[in-house]
Amino acid sequence: MKKNSYISLPVIKRLPRYYRFLGILKKNGTEKISSNELSRQMGLTASQIRQDLNCFGGFGQQGYGYNIEQLYAEIGNILGVNNKIPTILIGAGNLGKAIATHMEFSERGFDLIGVFDRNEALAGQMIKGLPIRHISGLYNFCKDNSPAVAVLCIPEESAKEIVEQLVKLNIKGIWNFTHYNISAEYPFLSVENVHLSDSLMTLSYQLNN
Questions:
Q1: Sign of the CA dihedral running 24, 18, 176, 163
Q2: What is the pTM of this model?
């Protein structure tokens, strides 16, 4: 598979959607699909789908379409779903607990190995087989286990100090549920920001317009 040297961020952000839709089709027993049919289901143009996938090499055959099982596996490889990147989660409040409990990290390329919180009352409680550790143990844990990714589910006012510590501990990527602008201060980090309130306000606009 030959891939373009530069892939735009919008294309990368569409890959998980392809993976999700193809997974549903695979589960339902569908063996092949045309770009036209896939576009109808996903709300994209067939041309857009072909352009996106051509960034990573040719997958379809003219007159046949895409082999779903093969394309699903290829996109999974591109996304690195089998990599099992060691990951820690910081902030075991309601949001952190929900993410740790319901997000299937192992199916998306990550291995959740540690959960931390500053609330001493939570220390020792279990989340999905992992004990909640006090944040004071973060340094030693990271030195011993070398996590590469951190999930931040903490208040914005606590984020700056924690991120500074994570950078010193060689964290390479952050899934950021805070409103702290990590990339402004640490442009070399891989950061994916999740702003749930933005999504809700986008829905508000759609309903009101």
A1: positive
A2: 0.90
CA distance 204 to 209: 9
Tokens of 137: 């143990």
Amino acid at 50: R
Q: Which long-range contacts (CB under 8 A, 24 or more apart) does 7-11 make?
A: 7/55, 7/56, 11/52, 11/55
Contact call for residues 90 and 119 (beta carbons, < 8 A): no
H or E segment and range at residue 156: helix 156-168
CB 89 within 8 A of CB 115: yes
Give the three-class secondary structure for 21: helix
**Rounded Cα–Cα distance for residues 203 and 143 (Å):** 43
The H helix count followed by the E strand count for the chain is: 9, 9
Which tens digits make up the pLDDT trace of 163-181? Answer: 999 999 999 999 999 999 9
Reduced to 3 states (helix: H, G, I; strand: E, B; else coil), residue 63 is coil
Question: Which residues are CB-neighbours of 175 under 8 A, at least 6 positions away?
Answer: 149, 150, 151, 152, 192, 194
Helix (H, G, I), strand (E, B) or coil at 151: strand
Please report, for residues 36, 45, 68, 85, 124, the alpha-carbon distance to residue 193 in angstroms, rounded to integers and kept in the order given: 32, 27, 30, 18, 29
